[in-house]
Amino acid sequence: MDWVVLAIGAIFLICIIVGVCKGAIKIAVSLAATLLTVVIVFFATPFVVKLIIEKTPVDTMIKDQVVAAMADAATEQVTEGGGLSEDMVRKVLKAAGVSEEKLAEYGIKIEDIVNGEIDSEKLAEYGISKELLAGLNQNEKAGAENAADEALEGADIPKDLQVKAIEMAEMPDIFKSLLSDNNNSEIYEKLGVETFPQYVGEFLSRLIIHIVAFLCTFLLVTIIIRAIVFALDIVSDLPVLGFVNRLAGGVVGIAGGLVIVWVLFIIVTLLYTTSIGRDIYEVIRENAVLNMIYEYNPFMKLATNFLR
Q: Could you write out the DSSP letters of every residue in 249-280?
């Protein structure tokens, strides 16, 4: 994946060359237009988000996929290590709202489930979802996914399991960090949710939609402002004042390259669930310079700041 590093290097090189050719004054006008674009996008994005949620099914689609993914992560966490343990069974039963007292009413003990003496069909006879037990066993996992999702969506999952589920989820580190930092009662109330799975689904759906809205608005506003600048022929009337101005233009061109790379990094983050997106993401994180650019991305902070 060396081409990723080369491509990003080429972006900076092209921007520097353009800056040298045009000079600092002309490039500064372009950066000023970009700054104006960011200001407009900041205020316009919430309206675009509202439009996307009201006019498209994207919100619901993302929530369903997120809940399913987090349910899988939670199930993998309690089942990792090979076999079942009493602690694993207790965690999943607690998440589904099934107490040991309820099991005792039917003469069932936790160790009976661990030892395989009680199967899914037997639990179903007592009104306990047989898919819940299937979700504990990797061999029966495929048939249990839908029921496990439904059980976990309305369940109050233990805090330690929440942390592990976030850590194991296949998503960018910035998403994991945001989920962990905002996993509290204040944000739950703000989002109108009660349980952890509901929180994850609502939070990530809003986050992803906000990022998409930010990118779309940024692209649209950029095109409009650039068209206005071009139509008014503002840049062509500006002078090129010699070597110093051209040299400064190269430096300012680096800033223009940063803007382009920052926006591209946001797109890569959104494409993390695809193989190509994940590969590029890993290259960025493994390269010291690219990782620093990724970490200090003000556009990413604006795009993910939907709780303001």
A: HHHHHHHHHHHHHHHHHHHHHHGGGSHHHHHH
Q: What is the pLDDT of residues 166-192, one digit of tens each?
A: 888 888 999 999 999 999 989 999 998
216: left (phi over 0), alpha (psi -120 to 50) or beta: alpha
Rounded Cα distance, 249 and 28, in Å:
8
Residue 23 contacts residue 240 (beta carbons within 8 Å): yes
SS3 102: helix
Contact status, residue 122 vs residue 113, Cβ threshold 8 Å: no
Look at residues 45, 39, 55 and name the one whose alpha carbon lies nearest to residue 213.
45
Contacts of 227 (CB under 8 A, 6+ apart): none
Count of domains forming the chain:
1
Q: What is the pLDDT of residues 226-279, one digit of tens each?
A: 888 777 666 555 555 566 677 777 888 898 899 999 999 999 999 998 889 999
Assess if residue 143 is contained within a domain: no
148 and 82 in contact (C-beta within 8 Å)? no
In a domain, 16, yes or no: yes
